[in-house]
Design goal:
Blueprint lengths: L6 H4 L2 H4 L13 E2 L11 H10 L13 H11 L6 E4 L1 H13 L5 E6 L4 H8 L3 E6 L8 H6 L4 E5 L11 H10 L5 E5 L20 E6 L12 E4 L2 H11 L6 H11 L3 H24 L11 E5 L3 H10 L2 E2 L1 E3 L7 H5 L4 E5 L3 H18 L1
Parallel strand pairs: 1-10, 3-4, 3-5, 5-6, 6-7
Antiparallel strand pairs: 2-8, 7-8, 9-12, 11-12
Bound molecules: pyridoxal-5'-phosphate.
Length: 365
């Protein structure tokens, strides 16, 4: 009898050693760990899902979410042929790498940044190349351009630092990128006050700007993302992502929030920005050095982040710890690359966070 080959021996070599993405997502009373909308779901989206009616769930959604593309185009002020949608912006990033990078091509990204990016690069057999941020948390345009990537990824505001990159930095990368390079700008947190570079897509046929409905729009569980770029560019991403990626319920909810739900979104964004300033002040009063954020979260370098987060979790508050981050700044060097990332929510949640944080600080000495 021939032995059954192990799954490992039949798995692609460049894929085999990639670990399953599985951060601690155990439910917690106050969850400020993943930057989703702490105010919940927009009511207009809940009504829209009820109205589409269960019977439509027996049929496939639109192949490429044309109605949603129209709604996004209206929101952005562009035409639907410059939009591609996906099952979350994760799907957009993954599909873009598959569309533009041959196996072995380099994907260049700032460090630290969104951990899914090097993971998606490796899944698609591209080589991830990390380029450290500058000491003031900007992208290093010169070094990123010199790194010879097929794809250059920028995330602004950046996750996990929360800092927005300077517009000139992004513009430099876009303008100096060679003819065979794609620039992918991730604007997952753009609604929280930073300036978008979407208008640059009109003059730069190899610039793709990715966005999500998972943060300011409160629809993370429904998985809706999109990107804006030249029609020929987004058409390639659309081919790569494949049909039926946005469900009937997700499309209805997303269209609703982009229309009658925009008031809800704007109000919560304004509250987030107020609470972000107040929360950073609270951290500064404690002698800490929170990083200036343009997102719905704040990163603060602290020593022993894992221990602190563990104690806080026991007190019912989840935040996201990081250890071994690149020590790009003085503040991160002081803590040995250890930091917490905290989602900004309603103030009662932030007050609970601060109380649990103070207790954890005492417990961890
Ligand atoms: C949260 C986040 C996303 C959004 O991912 P979805 O798949 O749309 O939920 C994308 N990029 C960054 C940097 C993020 O933090």
């Amino acid at each position: 009898m021939t032995p059954t080959p192990s799954a490992r021996s039949v798995t692609r070599a460049s894929y085999r050693d990639i670990a399953l993405y599985a951060p601690d997502r155990a439910p917690c009373r106050v969850d400020l760990s993943d930057n989703t909308n702490a105010w919940g779901v927009p009511p207009s989206s809940l009504r829209a899902i009820a109205e589409v009616g269960g019977s439509s769930f027996a049929r496939y959604p639109q192949l490429y979410a044309d109605s949603l593309k129209q709604a996004i185009a209206t929101y952005i002020g562009t035409t639907p042929d410059t939009i591609v949608t996906g099952c979350g912006s994760d799907d957009i990033l993954d599909s873009a790498i598959r569309a533009f990078a041959e196996p072995g091509d380099r994907m260049v990204f700032p460090d630290p940044t969104f951990p899914m990016v090097p993971l998606f690069a490796r899944m698609n057999a591209a080589e991830p190349v990390a380029v450290p941020l500058t000491r003031d948390y900007d992208a290093d345009a010169t070094a990123m351009l010199a790194a010879n990537g097929r794809i250059i990824y920028l995330c602004s505001p950046n996750n996990p630092t929360g800092a927005a990159f300077r517009r000139e930095t992004i513009q430099t990368v876009v303008e100096r990128a060679r003819g065979d390079q794609i620039v992918l700008v991730d604007e997952a947190y753009i609604e929280y006050g930073a300036e978008s570079v979407v208008t640059l897509t009109r003059d730069h046929p190899r610039l793709l700007v990715a966005r999500t409905m998972s943060k300011a729009f409160g629809l993370a569980g429904l998985r809706v993302g999109y990107a804006i770029g030249a029609p020929e560019l987004v058409a390639e991403v659309e081919k790569s992502r494949g049909p039926y990626k946005v469900s009937v319920a997700a499309q209805a909810a997303a269209i609703a929030v982009l229309g009658e739900g925009m008031g809800w979104v704007r109000e919560r964004v304004a509250l987030t920005i107020d609470n972000r300033r107040r929360f950073a002040e609270e951290l500064t009063r404690r002698g800490l050095r929170p990083i200036d954020s343009a997102a719905n979260f704040v990163m603060v370098p602290v020593t022993r982040a894992n221990d602190i987060a563990r104690v806080m979790r026991q007190r019912g508050v989840a935040v996201r710890p990081f250890e071994n981050l690149s020590m790009v700044s003085e503040a991160l060097a002081e803590t040995g690359g250890s930091a917490l990332r905290i989602t900004i929510g309603p103030w009662d949640m932030m007050a609970e966070m601060l109380a649990a944080f103070d207790e954890a600080g005492r417990a961890c000495g």
